[in-house]
């Protein structure tokens, strides 16, 4: 069924001295109906994390501009963004004193289907109304403990090593990339990309119900405000991208 996409991108520095999250939302320059979103949470000292995260957004924009669906699959496009950003981030370690790393979440909406990929602990959510259809698994120590049944959601949020990543961009090991696909998204569905500065303060239902109840911009404002309140003066950088599918005003996918 045809749908339009309403979108919003939002960031907040939180209680940090520097914003090291980066976000981007791009339309294909020549092919209507193709849209990409990318989000990255940088790590690695003053400016190092920001530089790493910026590479993800640069690669997302450039690779989408050269993307030709007849010769490249959506998964190959999403993978190329993460792999190429990883390579560039690694190279910067040899030319600076910084030790840059980054998470990455990429999302593609094309011909009525949705594709996504991620590495690290920035998250991707796929909601149908207030139900969670899919949520990315964190490539972190607590994420692994949860998958093994040794830790629950409440314990994960308080674990002293909750920020330890098992995979990210810029490390010596190749990034672990996981993929997702929605074959038939429809009006009423929504997608959320966000850093841990946001998701750490919400249940899945809270995120879904807020996005369901409001237009993307209002929902983003509500979520950022609540995250800041719940952080109690100790909040991380916040970044999020909302893509909400609605009945088409004039047919097709709009942005």
UniProtKB/TrEMBL annotation:
Residues 6-245 form the PPM-type phosphatase domain. GO terms for molecular function: protein serine/threonine phosphatase activity. Gene3D superfamilies: PPM-type phosphatase domain. It holds the Pfam family PP2C_2. InterPro entries: PP2C (IPR015655), PPM-type-like_dom_sf (IPR036457), PPM-type_phosphatase-like_dom (IPR001932). CDD domains: PP2Cc. This is Protein serine/threonine phosphatase. It comes from Thauera linaloolentis (strain DSM 12138 / JCM 21573 / CCUG 41526 / CIP 105981 / IAM 15112 / NBRC 102519 / 47Lol).
